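call fold(seq) -> tokens
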Amino acid sequence: RANVYPTREFLTCGLGEGALNGHRHCPVEWESCSRIIGYCPVVQDVQIKRHNSLCGLFAKEAKRLGWEIFMEPHLRDNNKELFKTDLVIVNGICAKVADVIVLYEAGLTTLSDAVTEKAEKYRHLEEQVQALTPAMDIEFLGFPTGAWGWKWYIGNERLLTDLGLSSSHSKRIARAF
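ret:
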């Protein structure tokens, strides 16, 4: 959390030109915490496992509250390009297309930027979601959480409330995430 893990970026800080600061496992210029947490192929399996665990937790809660769940449905847009959203959760004519994402919090707007990016990425799939479900009211959103484990996007609480979770239960879910 303090960004003091002994990465080469941290260990070579102030040593000047010629210091060995490249990534130990990838051919990138800097070995940094954000690179290790978010992009390093060496830890990709762990990243996928963490992501799938969070999707499963989210789906379990939605199902418990009576929502129908579609996990990673394969949706093709009008150009036949394949998209896999994490979750399509449906209750009657209401559907929420949620994409769970774990991010390294590089700045104050990292999580809110991810919400906008994910919503825009899938928004053009409205017809495909309508074909998959009986929903007419469809909302596309990101569900970000920080990689450090302590950063929680406040907009996530609105989604949990929309699903029917109480305020206290939403806080427990936030801690679990």
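The chain has a mean pLDDT of 83.
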